[in-house]
Amino acid sequence: MAKTVTRSGSSGRTSPGLLASLDPLLREWLPRQRWFAGKGRPVTGFSLVAVTELVPSGTRLGLYHLLLRAHQPDTAGDCYQLLIGVRDALPPRLASALIGHVAQGPLAGRTVYDGLYDTRPAELLLEALRSGARIGALRCERDPEQEIRPGLVPRLMTAEQSNSSVVYGDTFILKLFRRVAAGVNPDLELPLALAREGCPRVPPPTAWMEADLEEGDGEPYVLGVLQPYVQGATDGWELALRELAKGEDFGAEARALGRATAEVHGALARALPTATLGSAQIGPMVDGMVGRLDAAAQAVPALRPYAPALRTAFTALADLAAEGHTWTAQRVHGDLHLGQCLRAPTGEWSLIDFEGEPARPPAERRMAQPAVRDVAGMLRSFDYAASSADPPAPEWAHACRAAYCSGYAEAAGRDPRTDPVLLRACETDKAVYEVVYEARHRPDWLSVPLSAIHRLAAPDQP
């Protein structure tokens, strides 16, 4: 049974001097981070949601846990989770973690940095999770059936992602959410539900960290989730690119991945409520798709010539619903692509990262959706992989898309392609999302979703 350890720690709306000293450094550092959601808009100020001193700053290594709201024009301000390390000077191994040198306030003369890059802070996080610690507003919970051995060596994963992950001794992986909000986080909620259902396709949560704050109206902030690390696994994106580079067929893997997706969908439908979508429900769903298209066309001029034809993908779905057609909605992954899938050395596929599309509001990410939304995301991912090849390989993508849908049908008993209107609407909505994302974050990739937009706007589409 996990032992709960309670430690005191300064927490809440305190340390205004600390925030004032960090403010000029964070204004420069925070917008440069891959996981910062407010790119393209200036940061006008910060406010502390909570600060917990995990290691006193007067020691050789200080450590603060911050929940910090970044204020920007025309937004309510997103809340970010930061682990701020404090040292007199950084050793060369931590140079890439530098935030800056503090000029004033309680940390004047010292150096602050992203503590996740440092071994000791990462070790402290694991020990807190292992012991079920309570530190200030921070609260750690764990599954008592899973053992967490002490002393596992941490390493930060440096691959581009919208959060931060630390691997502990090839045994566990801790995903720390960078942009956080009060309420249920699907990246904890859904794996817990799947674990109760006995679904082997998703690593079960071992422990998790939350913050209990007055600001959340009684709802905790989910800060991080520790799960078993699939040792020796290759993520689907890396594997697909490797096979593409060798000119190898990926059809068998795509088919197996389709089966795994369908198994997860089946387990989610058993574990959590489902709903029937008729005209009354499809109408608002279509309105949302059209609204996102209109906003995207305003933001990305290259999309505007295609907007009228793309709108027909959504109106066709509304027309079908008006004729009496219905669909089943359920909880889904929400942002499924090759990079969210792991292939173990045994050949088994797992699905990870159930947080959903980071740009969508948390309540929207938790809504029941047609399972085809996930299928559309994976079909788009095959296009992305094929476009990354030199030269691009559209036929490879076409074969993978077909194999994936066939594999899905084997496990689910229904082929997503038998509902082409819904599939086109979901894939179009996903491609529109990608256009905005790439224009904002990776302009060099914009041609990939625009190529799909060209195809989806063609008159021969259903």
Question: Which helices and strands, and how do they pair?
Answer:
Blueprint: E1 6-7, H1 16-29, E2 45-55, E3 62-71, E4 78-87, E5 98-101, E6 111-114, H2 119-131, E7 134-135, E8 138-142, E9 154-156, E10 164-168, E11 172-176, E12 179-180, H3 186-197, E13 207-211, E14 221-228, E15 234-235, H4 236-246, H5 251-271, E16 275-277, H6 279-299, H7 307-322, E17 327-329, E18 341-343, E19 349-351, H8 362-365, H9 372-388, H10 394-412, H11 420-441, H12 447-456
Parallel strand pairs: 1-7
Antiparallel strand pairs: 2-3, 3-4, 4-6, 4-12, 5-6, 7-8, 8-13, 9-10, 10-11, 11-14, 13-14, 15-18, 16-17, 18-19
Helix pairs in contact: 3-5, 4-9, 5-10, 6-7, 6-11, 7-11, 9-10, 9-11, 11-12
Instruction: Let me know the number of strands.
Output: 19
% residues in beta strands: 15-25%
* Mean of pLDDT: 92
- Unreliable stretches, pLDDT < 50, 5 or more residues? 1-8
What strand order characterises the main sheet? 1-7-8-13-14-11-10-9
Shape: globular
Overall number of domains: 2
Radius of gyration: 23 Å
Helix content: 25-40%
Alpha-beta content class: alpha+beta
Distance between the termini: 56 Å
Counting DSSP H or I runs of 4 or more residues, the number of helices is: 12
Instruction: Summarize the main sheet.
Output: 8 strands, mixed
Report on this model:
The protein is α+β, with helices and mostly antiparallel strands. The chain folds into two domains: 6-228, no CATH class; 234-456, Aminoglycoside 3'-phosphotransferase, Chain: A, domain 2 (Alpha-Beta Complex), CATH 3.90.1200. The chain is built from twelve helices and 19 strands. The strands form four sheets. It has an eight-stranded mixed beta sheet with strand order 1-7-8-13-14-11-10-9, covered by helices on one side. Strands 2, 3, 4, 5, 6 and 12 form a six-stranded antiparallel beta sheet that branches. Strand 2 and strand 3 form a beta hairpin. Helix 6 runs antiparallel to helix 7, helix 9 runs antiparallel to helix 10 (394-412) and helix 9 (372-388) crosses helix 11. It is globular, with a radius of gyration of 23 Å. The termini are far apart. Residues 1-8 have low confidence and may be disordered.
